[in-house]
Design brief:
The protein is α/β, with parallel strands linked by helices. The protein has 7 helices and 4 strands. A 4-stranded parallel sheet has the order 2-1-3-4. Helix 1 links the parallel strand 1 and strand 2. The protein starts with a strand and ends with a helix. The structure holds 4-nitrophenyl phosphate (4NP).
Length: about 160
């Protein structure tokens, strides 16, 4: 399984989603591939936001070594599933899709756990440390449930 997490800047939500999923699949001894990207190019080559790094550190998930990159069309072939954090990321990714197969790979992260809920992972960038912590816990829950769902789907 090859999973790509996508947000706007690739410095807050998607690197945290990547770090959490990496930790969970490593603990479960799965050989899945996980990466993250941003739809925008503002933070290409940058480390994650220091507030997200600190929050991960506080709760046991390290993301300091990750570097920002921009989502590109090749990602449709490199990954089996592409998770968008919010609806804006979702439509930005879909605007680059050219085939039915590519369209079918793109999902809202929330919808994978709560189908058709259309809920979003809020952007904490202009928020407080409490917002970063709540995004961490939300992503921790969602990635745990998605890991379990993907394991079930594979073995069914
Ligand atoms: P992210 O958050 O999409 O969760 O990485 C943001 C990071 C940077 C900006 C916006 C959102 N920005 O405008 O630079």
């Amino acid at each position: 399984m090859r999973i790509l997490m996508v947000c706007l800047g690739n410095i807050c939500r998607s690197p945290m989603a990547e770090g959490l999923m990496r930790r969970k699949i490593s603990e479960a001894k799965l050989d899945w591939i996980v990466d993250s990207a941003g739809t925008a190019n503002y933070h290409v080559g940058s480390s994650p936001d220091h507030r997200m790094i600190e929050t991960g550190h506080k709760f046991g998930t390290s993301i300091h070594a990750l570097k920002g990159r921009q989502f590109c069309v090749d990602d449709f072939d490199k990954f089996d599933v592409i998770y968008a954090m919010d609806k804006s990321n979702f439509s930005n990714i879909l605007s680059l899709a050219q085939t039915e197969t590519q369209f079918a790979k793109v999902r809202l992260l929330f919808d994978e756990v709560f189908p058709k809920s259309s809920k979003e992972v809020p952007d904490p960038y202009y928020g407080t440390m409490a917002d970063f912590e709540s995004v961490y816990h939300l992503l921790d829950d969602l990635t745990e449930q998605i890991k379990n769902k993907l394991i079930n789907d594979k073995t069914r």
